[in-house]
Amino acid sequence: MDVGGFLAALVQPMKDHLAKLEGDTSGATAAADSFGRASSALTELDGRHTSAANAALSGWYGEKANAFQSRVAAFSGGVGTLARNATTAQQATTTAVDAVNAGKTAIQGLIDEFTGWAWPRLAAAVAAGLFGGVGAVLAVAAEVTAKAREYEGRTAQELEEVRTALTDVVAQLRGLTKPDFTGIGDPLGVESGGTTSTSSAGDSGGSSGSSGSSGSGGSGGGGSGGGSGGGSGGGGGGGGGGGGGGGPIGPRLPVAIPPQPGTGVGVNLPDGSSAEAPNETAARAVRNALSALGTPYVWGGANPPQGTDCSGLTQWAYGGAGFDIPRPASSQAMGASVPADQLLPGDLVVWDGHVAMVIGNGQMVEAGDPVQVNPIRTSNSGMGFMGFYRPTG
């Protein structure tokens, strides 16, 4: 008996199982690495894009800003889906390579194990047959053949486990979520406020030194900007000329009744001065708003000190004082109208895309980037100035 030839025939079905897993997996490994790098790059892109978009939205209000924000969210969602898909593909590819390599190792191990067991038995039987006849050889050959069928079944099972793992990987890849970038390329539409950019804290109406000399230029907002401090009031007046145009465009509400002498509530201001609010609610709202100084600008935010936008700040401040006001800036033109020379702490300075809160002495607090105190003004990046309002009436 040719022991080598006999064993080769028995092992061949096992080797056929092994051959089904043969092949170079280095390409798949390289693909997994590429998917990992793609996921990291997409995540970084999403972060940089979101940061840039938030910077662009700081001080940008109105319908076009809202439309832009929806595009940012859609882009971020789509890129996030792509990043997650890349991570899933990386993991799936790695799983597939590991399954194939593990299957190859297991099957080769079974072949070696069977050969190591069978060879010495057959060799001994053949040697004994030279003296005792073929009976002993045939008995051992039958035993080895039965054992070969057992090992063939085991290698087949290993191959099936690899197939199952690969089937799961394919199902995982077929189940990837399709990224949705719907509407990203659509036009933003018309800006109701007439402008699209620049921070409210940085526009010339609020910070220009030349405005301070224009006390009589307050055609949109009045010279005193709150009944005190000529310099600050001039800032408000100068701004009025730039943004007021034909005058306030907000709703014409009943004029606020000035509080009786001695009924005001004191408020301490950041510059060390003090002012009197018309009531406790307004005073508490001002204190709340001032406590948010330094809060970063976050479009859609209303959660100092983590982040806030303009109307989020005023709504949060009044909400903390137990008084609810609407969320949109233009909707905060409510309560009672206030003449420019009768402004008191807690009054709101409202544009059609921005809002600030009067704190007294010609100053207001607003959510620029960050929340800060500026002179009262009536211009804001070309937005329509709606007027001064006292929410508490």
TrEMBL record:
One of its GO terms (biological process) is proteolysis. Signal peptide: none annotated. InterPro entries: NLP_P60_dom (IPR000064), Papain-like_cys_pep_sf (IPR038765), PG_Endopeptidase_C40 (IPR051794), PPE_sf (IPR038332). This is NlpC/P60 family protein. GO terms for molecular function: cysteine-type peptidase activity. The lineage of its organism: Bacteria, Bacillati, Actinomycetota, Actinomycetes, Pseudonocardiales. Residues 279-393 form the NlpC/P60 domain. Residues 178-280 are annotated as: Disordered. Belongs to the peptidase C40 family. Pfam families: NLPC_P60. Residues 193-202 have a biased composition (Low complexity). Residues 203-249 have a biased composition (Gly residues). Keywords: Hydrolase, Protease, Thiol protease.
